[in-house]
Amino acid sequence: MGVFFVSALSRLGGGVPDLLCAYRGVWLLVELKDGTKPPSGQKLTQDEERWHENVANAGPISIATTSAGIMKHFQLLQKRSSRRRLTFDSE
Fold it and tell me: For the whole prediction, is pTM greater than 0.85?
């Protein structure tokens, strides 16, 4: 399956994504949102939105509610070299 690396970044604040993850040579910043909340409660904060906009062309950022959602994003990135934020329903 491969080695999965995760480092927590949430303590940095200022809109920085919650996790820095790597899997099979692909790096991904991950913004975690609470999947038990309605979509309106999962929106990015102003700081997060600003941070995402500033680095959007530097590399992929995932917004996910589950580990399965994060793995889906890794699979997509391994199939293509995408350089933008990935968002979709996580199951």
Answer: no
For 18-49, the pLDDT digits (tens) are: 999 998 888 899 999 999 999 999 999 999 99
- Tokens at 12, concatenated: 């940095």
CATH topology of domain 4-87: Trna Endonuclease; Chain: A, domain 1 (3.40.1350)
As a whole number of angstroms, the distance between CA 70 and CA 29 comes to: 10
What is the domain partition of the chain in residue ranges? Answer: 4-87
> Which distant-in-sequence residues (6+ apart) come within 8 Å of 36 by Cβ?
none
d(C-alpha 5, C-alpha 54), whole Å: 24
